[in-house]
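hi! just following up on the protien thing from before. the input was this:
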Amino acid sequence: MILDKGLIWSILIASVFADVELSKDLIERKKQIDLKCGRENNFEEEDYKQDFHKIELSKDLSEKHLCFLKCFYQTDGAIDEKGFLIFERVDEILSMMKLNDEDKKKITTCLKKTKAVNKCTDLIPLTKCFTRKESSMN
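and the predicted 3d structure came back as:
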């Protein structure tokens, strides 16, 4: 079973970039998606731990981790059926994070440059938008 703290999009991002304030209902919803996508992609707590340092270093995540995240984003409504980000949902997620306006703008600008997510590895540019190093390059 995957750790509650780790593999939900908001918390994954926050572990690198900011603090998050989530309601109990939202945390429960994220846990359910976390479990569903973890099972579908055979992604376990140990996989998360192995990849966590890569996030901090802005390195590419394992394909298994990327497939988990693709499932998570689609299930959570952040990516539509054609693989494009739904920016209304992205804005909701960013609003739950303790980010200043400048950081939110950098992340959003970076995300708008990403292409459709059709395969797991298409998430690599998207995940880099949430690291300080990459998002500040815009």
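Residues 49 and 76 are 22 Å apart (CA to CA).
The chain has a mean pLDDT of 75.
cheers
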